[in-house]
Write a structure and sequence with these properties.
Strand content of chain A: 5-15%
CATH class of the largest domain in chain B: Alpha Beta
Radius of gyration of chain B: 24 Å
Oligomer: heterodimer
Number of domains of chain A: 2
Helix content of chain A: 55-70%
Number of helices of chain A: 14
Structural class of chain B: alpha/beta
Number of helices of chain B: 9
Number of strands of chain B: 10
Radius of gyration of chain A: 31 Å
CATH architecture of the largest domain in chain B: 3-Layer(aba) Sandwich
Strand order of the largest sheet of chain B: 6-7-8-3-9-10
Order of helices and strands of chain B: EEEHEEHEHHHEHEEEHHH
Order of helices and strands of chain A: HHEHHEEEHEEHEEHEHEHEHHHHH
Helix content of chain B: 40-55%
Distance between the termini of chain A: 28 Å
Chain lengths: 402, 295
């Protein structure tokens, strides 16, 4: 096969002469490549964000959840109907060596009403260790401590604060929850929130002391998660093992809980994302396929139209192979340019997404290289049939065709 | 030794009832250095013969030896190679690629030889100079006159320095000046030792040829060697179509027409109501009858 620069020149010339047709031909490939690259970019970006977040907020944090909670990675909605974690588990974990602090998260139902009702609010009963475990600081005020953990005080997530109160700093304000008045002690800093992570939950949360919750008659309660911060990253595997042993003891040897290392949390959070990404890429591949068929169609027409030219080329000595490579190069050029336009569109789309949403898509050169390779592949696959047709023609038949 | 040797070559087109015999057992040997003119009426198989000789087409029957090598059943790559290296084709409709400049068109055969860009453009430019077209290198075919385009086409045919030039009515679309230009070029090529085979309808152009082949209904009916600069005798008589009419037949035909005109004039002068065509026919039959009687 000889791919001379002359072939590329002829291809570009032909494309320039049929601008509209070439553009429409490329359309399928453009859309396909643009969507694949955009989606991969978003997905990669979100994954990076999640990983970064895990590193920032829960780098040395082991997450213990009931088994059901692990099935669903969508923050709030993953609240299990019945959790198997109990206060005994919390104290058992707290006694393990290497545990710096542990914090139970107990999600409670009921509407909170301050200046207004904030519908997104989630009331979470927890203990004073939360800021330490999540390594999050407070924007205003203080977190409830051991002493006042019996009182009806609360700390708000950033969204909950603005949702409940008109005042931007609602320290000392009170809100009602289940006919009980709570006073706001502090407001947490915003968790830089990402899709598919617990941080959305934290921003919307109203944290109340678990002892306060104990004092209220709240009926069925269950611990959603226990977060455990270890003293150093080195100890993660050991503590992980110890927690497992301890919990097996308290759960009478029933393995009805999950202990997740930070890396595993990130994984479980990205699972759904991966699935979604794969689905969308699947659709985009269909688009690429349709684009390829479009190229094939146009190339077939082009071959028929240019039969006379093929005849002339053969008459002056072009071999079947040379004609084949000429048309193949044309198909590849069309799809390659389509792919490059697609990548440019994807870059524009990702820029727009970056500036309009809090997602930060990342595009690395590997993805672009793969996209270029895929579009070239499409050109080859769908250009072969027309190119073969062109090359197989007897010279005299091709020449007669005017 | 013959450069081109066709033996009992036939070419059939179509299937079943619609089969046409374009070439009917043609045997022809052309030696190196000959300048052969092929003449004959339209549809007599001249182009088919040239296409087969130029390896653009394959004979249905018979053998074709080019340079003592059997070539009628060559695989496409070998045929392409032979076309590229030993044969230069010139067409009636020029067949330059309209999207390429004259220079690029001329360089096209070299492209398929795998020559580098600069080298082939240089060589093509040299060839254009030889045909007197160097000033038009960067023109597109649509910007040139027919004669100029054909000169470029000749340059293209020559650029690979092939030993055989095959020209299918190279002057068919040209005026007399253009024809002259093209034929002078061809004859110059012939002088450098090339074998040139061309089809023409113009008997005058047989002056350039050393040999004239007359075809009719797919067969060679006359093969005549001529001296350069002279119109071939058969061509001079314009008798390259069969069945031949005698001079007498022609005269009778002419006189018949003359009489018809005469009668028509008379009829229109005397009796206006009579239809002239009718009377002419009647007179014609009368004449015929009297002629038969005399014989």
């Amino acid at each position: 096969m000889s791919f001379s620069p002359g072939h590329v020149r002829t291809a570009v010339l032909t494309m320039r002469q049929n601008r509209w047709r070439s553009l429409l031909t490329m359309f399928g490939v453009i859309v396909g490549v643009a969507s694949v690259v955009t989606i991969i970019g978003i997905s990669e970006g979100v994954k990076n964000q999640i990983t970064n977040q895990v590193n920032v907020y829960s780098k040395d944090v082991i997450t213990v959840s009931s088994r059901a909670a692990n099935l669903n990675a969508f923050g709030v909605s993953s609240v299990p109907a019945v959790s198997t974690l109990t206060p005994q588990d919390v104290s058992a974990i707290a006694n393990i060596r290497g545990v710096k602090a542990s914090v139970p998260l107990e999600i409670l139902s009921g509407q909170a009403k301050g200046d207004r009702i904030f519908h997104g609010a989630v009331v979470i009963a927890t203990n004073q260790n939360l800021p330490l475990v999540l390594s999050q600081s407070l924007a205003f005020g203080t977190f409830f401590n051991n002493q006042d953990s019996n009182t009806y005080s609360a700390v708000l997530g950033a969204n909950a604060a603005t949702g409940l109160f008109r005042d931007s700093i609602p320290l000392g304000y009170s809100f009602n929850w289940r006919s009980q008045q709570f006073v706001v002690d502090g407001v947490l800093n915003n968790f830089s929130n990402t899709l598919f992570s617990n941080d959305t939950l934290y921003n919307n949360a109203i944290f109340i002391p678990i002892n306060a919750a104990n004092q209220m008659s709240l009926g069925n309660r269950s611990i959603y998660e226990i977060l455990v911060r270890v003293t150093s990253s080195r100890l993660l595997p050991i503590v992980d093992k110890e927690i497992n042993t301890a919990l097996l003891a308290t759960h009478s040897n029933q393995h009805d809980f999950t202990v997740l290392l930070p890396s595993q949390v990130a994984e479980s959070n990205t699972g759904v994302l991966n699935l979604l990404t794969e689905l969308i890429i699947g659709v985009a591949i269909i688009s690429l396929f349709v684009g390829g068929v479009g190229i094939m169609n146009v190339m077939l027409v082009s071959v028929t139209e240019r039969m006379h030219e093929i005849g002339i080329r053969k008459a002056v000595g072009a071999s079947n192979r040379q004609i084949l490579s000429q048309f193949l190069v044309e198909a590849i050029t069309v799809s390659l340019i389509g792919g490059i336009i697609g990548i440019i569109l994807a870059l524009v789309a990702n820029g727009a997404i970056r500036s309009l949403t809090n997602l930060s898509p990342t595009l690395n050169w590997q993805i672009m290289l793969i996209a270029v390779a895929i579009s070239m592949g499409i050109g080859i696959i769908f250009g072969l049939v027309p190119a073969f047709r062109a090359s197989r023609k007897e010279p005299i038949d091709a020449l007669r065709n005017d | 030794m013959a450069l081109i040797k066709l033996e009992d070559v036939s070419k059939l087109y179509g299937f079943g009832d619609a089969t046409t015999l374009a070439l009917d057992g043609v045997s022809l040997a052309i030696n190196k250095g000959e300048f052969v003119a092929v003449m004959g009426p339209s549809g007599c198989g001249k182009s088919t013969l040239l296409n087969i000789m130029g390896l653009l087409d394959r004979p249905t029957h018979g053998t074709y030896k080019l340079n003592n090598r059997l070539v009628q059943r060559l695989r496409p790559p070998q045929a392409a190679k032979l076309r590229r290296d030993t044969i230069g084709f010139i067409f009636q409709s020029y067949n330059l690629l309209p999207k390429l400049t004259v220079l690029e068109n001329v360089a096209l055969p070299l492209t398929y030889k795998g020559m580098g860009l600069t080298k082939r453009l240089k060589q093509a430019s040299g060839m254009l100079e030889r045909v007197g077209m160097q000033s038009r290198e960067y023109f597109y075919p649509s910007q040139l006159s027919g004669g100029q385009i054909q000169c470029a086409a000749i340059a293209r045919a020559l650029v690979n320095s092939p030993s055989i030039i095959i020209a299918d009515e190279p002057t068919g679309n040209l005026d007399s000046a253009g024809s002259r230009l093209v034929m002078e070029l061809l004859s110059e090529i012939h002088k450098t030792g090339n074998t040139v085979i061309f089809v023409t309808h113009n008997p005058e152009l047989t002056r350039y040829a050393t040999r004239v082949v007359y075809m009719h209904d797919g067969m060679i009916i006359e093969d005549e060697k001529t001296a350069l600069g002279q119109v071939a005798t058969t061509a001079r008589r314009q008798l390259y179509s069969r069945p031949r009419k005698s001079v007498e037949d022609d005269l009778a035909g002419v006189s018949l027409l003359m009489n018809m005109v005469e009668e028509k004039d008379l009829a229109s002068e005397s009796v206006k109501t009579k239809k002239s065509g009718k009377s002419a026919r009647r007179i014609a039959t009368k004449r015929q009858r009297s002629k038969d009687e005399t014989e």
